[in-house]
Amino acid sequence: MDHVNDVKDVTARTGVAGERIPTVIADRVDIVYRVNGTSAGRGSATAALNRIVRRKKTERASGVRTVHAVRNVSFVAYKGEAIGLIGTNGSGKSTLLKAVAGLLPVENGKIYTDGQPSLLGVNAALMSDLTGERNVHLGGLAMGMTREQIKERYQEIVDFSGINEKGDFISLPMRTYSSGMGSRLRFSIAAAKDHDVLLIDEALATGDAKFRQRSADRIRAMREHAGTVFLVSHSNSSIRETCERVLWLERGELRMDGPTEEVLKEYEAFTEPKKKPRPAKA
Ligand SMILES: Nc1ncnc2c1ncn2[C@@H]1O[C@H](COP(=O)(O)OP(=O)(O)OP(=O)(O)O)[C@@H](O)[C@H]1O
């Protein structure tokens, strides 16, 4: 099994114990995507025929290409931590998050989690033809809340999202929302529940400054109540506001794992364009 839901067994075996309680352990994880239909040939029927004819050839010849998205990544996350995942485009952040959520198999290594991690992405499935109100109920049920819990927290969710600040938008279909409003509602629904491990993919990026501040406060509160929060973001300020630890992935490899400021300092030096030397004064 590559995704095991019992971290306690591992802690017993490895002796990682004491005050800090591990919630996620990634042990030398490799994740590989396989993409079909990449060989020359027109249309998928030709590609399929090619695959049958050349069954014994290499993967590349049969039209299957592999993308090694995460390479030999290991880390231990503890209860109460908020961890930022950073890295340039295509460095493997979303892939790693999906694997921690149990949505992608790992090629090598293992991921152990304590409790069921919840992945909150900007694409979290809400129904655009239904009203915000219906979506709050559906989203809550999808996360495992009871009808009573949803009723109890409904007003809190709507108030937190700020959707109704500019009129009665919560009774309109979600397709009438701006992308920022949509992701605020998604975040608010997810934040209404206490999660053991909450995985957030860019959810805060589209909110305005006021909402970002509220989200950062909410994430802090969630950490105090229980679990561990992972946040993937390209916004270094969101990471600074929210996380005290950062994992930096580059080309699928874990380049740095440490306190936010230390890692961001190196990352910013890596991503900022090199300054041209000033011409010498005449
Ligand atoms: N479904 C997929 N099939 C094949 N390759 C994929 C798939 N999803 C991602 N990849 C590849 O895996 C690598 C890592 O992608 P991933 O989306 O995890 O990166 P990321 O760090 O989240 O990027 P970004 O910052 O742009 O969102 C990339 O090379 C990407 O092309």
Automatic annotation (TrEMBL):
<dbReference type="InterPro" id="IPR003439">
    <property type="entry name" value="ABC_transporter-like_ATP-bd"/>
</dbReference>
<dbReference type="GO" id="GO:0005524">
    <property type="term" value="F:ATP binding"/>
</dbReference>
<keyword id="KW-0547">Nucleotide-binding</keyword>
<dbReference type="InterPro" id="IPR003593">
    <property type="entry name" value="AAA+_ATPase"/>
</dbReference>
<dbReference type="InterPro" id="IPR050683">
    <property type="entry name" value="Bact_Polysacc_Export_ATP-bd"/>
</dbReference>
<keyword id="KW-0813">Transport</keyword>
<protein>
    <submittedName>
        <fullName>ABC transporter ATP-binding protein</fullName>
    </submittedName>
</protein>
<keyword id="KW-0067">ATP-binding</keyword>
<comment type="similarity">
    <text>Belongs to the ABC transporter superfamily.</text>
</comment>
<dbReference type="InterPro" id="IPR015860">
    <property type="entry name" value="ABC_transpr_TagH-like"/>
</dbReference>
<feature type="domain" description="ABC transporter">
    <location>
        <begin position="53"/>
        <end position="276"/>
    </location>
</feature>
<dbReference type="Pfam" id="PF00005">
    <property type="entry name" value="ABC_tran"/>
</dbReference>
<dbReference type="InterPro" id="IPR027417">
    <property type="entry name" value="P-loop_NTPase"/>
</dbReference>
